[in-house]
Design brief:
By secondary structure, the chain is of the alpha/beta class. It is 40% helix and 15% strand.
Length: 377
């Protein structure tokens, strides 16, 4: 029996859901506020991430509504990892398609950490925002072009030529343009149709492929009896990470121990989450995300499927070697190249600071876990 999909009007993944449109970069007033260093993030602390400390209350800006994408944060709360790390309350602030970007929230001092993406953070830095990415949940770019086996299946870049693809207006168009450029194609090689996030036009044959999120739209298409065919951006010339942990440079400079304690708790939470997709879905649908789907409840069965698919974006051989949230130099270089393909020229040292997560694992080697990597990863 097909599962009941989440309301299609709201559940379609937009660029805003992983960090906001590039046009939403912060302005001069917000930058001045950031430079002032004002924030309600509690004491900076001087203890190592493994020592007892009291960091007070902090806020974390999520990139979307409270669904399965933040299962690690739910486990960190449920299992007391934040408390053991020295925090009072860790307030998880829900995002949404019309929300202020994570970068703006961090700049304003309303959150210590924001979950975002290099595509959201890099343009802000280029404009002068004092931000850095210190870790990442997703190792792989979750975007894809989804076609249907029952329609015009497109599984290779070569098969994309001459096809009609549905793309959401705004920053998603920038990503598609970068994808085409990275693969030696021009916009004239395809026909772009401006569409929304609902897959109904794809199913009805109005175009051949729909810009999608690998862990969401394919599941919804299958629930409607269709066979999704994915042309993933990560595996075809445009790899970048997502659900990144973005903070102010000032926070790194003055609250380093606090950030390391926070990352330790996050690692513990996500270790639990990836091992138990069913429990992750239950926490998302029945507790933390109860009624979060714009007044409606999330579907547990659908969320379980998303949690399982999400593991394919989180778990890799490099993660088994280096730990959750880490990035190899090769992956960093790939991200910089992908950003350049989308028109954002930035150097790795301006965007990434992996020293904190490296220190966390050096000080807490037992945090490293060998996971079973999904076959699709």
């Amino acid at each position: 029996m097909p599962t009941q999909p989440i309301s299609s009007a709201f559940d379609r993944r937009s660029f805003l859901r992983i960090g906001g449109a590039a046009a939403g970069v912060v302005g001069t007033t917000a930058l001045l506020a950031a430079c002032s260093g004002t924030s309600s993030t509690g004491a900076s602390g001087s203890a190592s991430s493994g020592a007892a400390a009291s960091y007070g209350d902090i806020a974390v800006q999520l990139s979307w509504i409270k669904n399965i994408e933040f299962a690690g944060e739910y486990f960190a709360t449920e299992n007391g990892y934040y408390t053991k790390a020295g925090f009072g309350t860790v307030d998880l602030l829900a995002g949404g398609s019309g929300s202020t970007t994570a970068e703006e929230i961090i700049i304003s001092g309303k959150a210590l950490v924001g979950l975002s993406s290099p595509i959201g953070t890099a343009p802000s830095i280029i404009k002068g925002a004092p931000l850095k990415v210190i870790a990442t949940t997703y190792q792989k770019n979750p975007f894809c072009l989804m076609s249907l086996k029952e329609g015009t299946p497109i599984s290779t870049v070569a098969e994309l030529k001459g096809k009609k693809i549905g793309v959401q207006a705004g920053a998603n168009q920038t990503i598609v343009d970068g994808f085409l450029k990275a693969n030696g194609l021009s916009k004239s090689d395809v026909t772009i149709v401006t569409t929304g996030f609902d897959i109904a036009p794809l199913i009805s044959g109005k175009y051949d492929a729909h810009m999608s999120y690998t862990t969401n739209e394919p599941i919804l298409a299958a629930s409607e009896g269709k066979t999704p065919v994915l042309l993933t951006f990560a595996d075809n010339g445009l790899p970048f990470v997502a659900e990144t942990f973005t903070v102010l440079q000032d926070t790194i400079d003055t609250k380093r121990a606090l950030l390391k304690a926070y990352l330790k708790a996050e690692i513990q939470g996500w270790t639990d989450a990836v091992k138990d997709p069913a429990k992750s879905a239950s926490l998302a649908a029945n507790k933390y995300g109860k009624g979060a789907n714009f007044g409606k409840d999330l579907d547990v069965t659908e969320q379980t499927k998303e949690a399982t698919a999400q593991n394919g974006l989180i778990l890799t051989t490099d993660v088994n070697t280096n730990g959750l949230f880490t990035m190899t130099q090769d992956l960093i270089d790939q991200n910089i190249k992908s950003l350049a393909a989308m028109g954002y020229d930035i150097t790795a040292d301006k965007l990434f600071d992996m020293s904190l997560i490296e220190e966390v694992y050096k000080e807490n080697p037992s945090l490293k876990t060998t996971f079973t990597i999904p076959s699709a990863a």
